[in-house]
């Protein structure tokens, strides 16, 4: 049995308060009773070997020297459907994580990912026994026709029931969705977001569908049964979904798959909206829409100077004849300018002949 490969793993997640160290334990395809058309966890996670009690201990030990640099620590079981793993295989992994953290002086949170149709009272009691705090559900869509075409093996109602049980028993609820699945329309993506909001999760991840080698979706793509979502469309849809969640008080903690040796256009991605800076592209599109709304209102009402709030920060606008000046907090400058100054270019197209300057305070 080989050790867990932790190279190319994202160790950081943005938090409103401090930085959290994520110790990822990948359980590629363990416990999952289905082969969803889009899934090849061995490719996505970069490993094909299941973790063991010993490998989990060794993995956590490898982080012991840097824990003190972080405000908090979380051990997260990613990849497979954790609660679908037979208990005699599931329990040693939970024991290993708990015992290793105690041995090396960690006081972490614990997280697992699973399917909605493998949540019941017994599963929750077992997870609570081992200190699991967060349960993330791979929901993917809240539209039954999309779930059926994707081979998910469960319906939206299963998600509703699972989410209710998770919150009722005191766990933090996370939900993962996948825009661009077979048969999904723009209306379906909005419907999914609205139904997810009704479930009141604490966090959401949005992973636009990409075609990975060795999946049924690859076959569907090459046989013309499936048309992959374009990068432009994915950015646009996500720029609509994120404000919906944030306005409902739900944090979106990830948008798009992270870059790794396997997940790249030169690796295992066949088609679809993969880009190593996808999240930044979406943030930039959200900023552009905000800019156009404010400038449009200023122009129609004849206002030359205006201050507007964006994500809790003040943005200063000046619109005078052919000059547009926008002043933003320094941390937001790249988001407002966009990759290769795309936002400045698009503003100039909307306001022909305008001189556009976006600068930081």
> What general outline do the C-alpha atoms trace?
globular
H/E order of the elements? EEHHEHEHEHHEHEEHHEEHEEEHHE
Unreliable parts: 1-17
Give me the number of helical elements. 12
* Rounded Rg: 22 Å
- Average of pLDDT: 88
- Multimeric status of the protein: single chain
Q: Span between N and C termini?
A: 54 Å
Proportion of residues in β-strands: 15-25%
- The helicity comes to 25-40%
Distinctive features:
361 residues; alpha/beta; eight-stranded mixed sheet; four-stranded mixed sheet; 12 helices; 37% helix; 22% strand
Give a structural overview.
With 361 residues, the protein is α/β, with parallel strands linked by helices. Helix content is 37%, strand content 22%. The chain has helices spanning 41-45, 53-61, 87-103, 121-129, 144-149, 156-168, 186-199, 216-222, 231-247, 278-301, 333-337, 342-350, and strands spanning 12-13, 20-27, 72-79, 109-114, 132-140, 172-177, 203-206, 211-212, 251-255, 269-271, 305-310, 313-320, 323-328, 355-360. The strands form 3 sheets. It has an 8-stranded mixed beta sheet. Helix 2 (53-61) runs parallel beside helix 3, helix 7 packs parallel to helix 9 and helix 9 (231-247) packs across helix 10 (278-301). The chain is globular, with a radius of gyration of 22 Å.
């Amino acid at each position: 049995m080989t050790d867990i490969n932790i190279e190319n793993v994202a160790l950081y997640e943005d938090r409103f308060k401090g930085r959290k160290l994520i110790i990822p334990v990948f359980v590629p395809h363990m416990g999952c009773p289905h082969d969803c058309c889009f899934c090849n966890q061995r490719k996505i996670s970069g490993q094909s070997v299941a973790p063991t009690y010993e490998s989990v201990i060794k993995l956590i030990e490898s982080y012991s020297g840097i824990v003190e640099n972080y405000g908090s620590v979380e051990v997260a079981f990613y990849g497979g459907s954790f609660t679908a793993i037979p208990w005699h295989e599931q329990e040693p992994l939970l024991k290993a994580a708990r015992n290793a953290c105690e041995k090396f002086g960690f006081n972490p949170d614990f997280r697992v990912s699973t399917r909605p149709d493998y949540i019941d009272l017994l599963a929750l009691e077992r997870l609570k026994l081992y200190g699991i705090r967060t349960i993330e559900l791979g929901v993917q869509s809240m539209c039954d026709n999309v779930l059926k075409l994707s081979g998910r093996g469960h319906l939206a109602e299963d998600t509703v029931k699972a989410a209710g049980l998770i919150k009722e028993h005191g766990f933090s609820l996370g939900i993962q969705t996948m825009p661009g699945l077979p048969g999904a329309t723009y209306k379906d993506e909005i419907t999914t977001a609205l139904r997810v909001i009704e479930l009141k999760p604490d966090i959401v991840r949005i992973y636009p569908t990409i075609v990975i080698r060795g999946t049924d979706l690859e076959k569907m793509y090459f046989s013309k049964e499936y048309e992959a979502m374009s990068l432009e469309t994915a950015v646009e849809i996500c720029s609509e979904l994120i404000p919906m969640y944030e306005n409902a008080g739900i944090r979106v903690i990830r948008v798009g798959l992270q870059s790794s040796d396997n997940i790249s256009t030169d690796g295992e991605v066949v088609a679809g909206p993969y880009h190593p800076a996808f999240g930044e592209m979406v943030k930039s599109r959200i900023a552009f829409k905000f800019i156009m709304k404010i400038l449009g209102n200023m122009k129609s009402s004849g206002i030359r100077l205006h201050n507007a709030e964006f994500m809790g920060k003040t943005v200063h606008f000046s619109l005078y004849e052919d000059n547009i000046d926008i002043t933003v907090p320094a941390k937001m400058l790249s988001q407002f300018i966009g990759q290769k100054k795309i936002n400045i270019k698009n503003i100039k197209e909307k306001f022909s002949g305008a001189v556009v300057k976006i600068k930081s305070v």
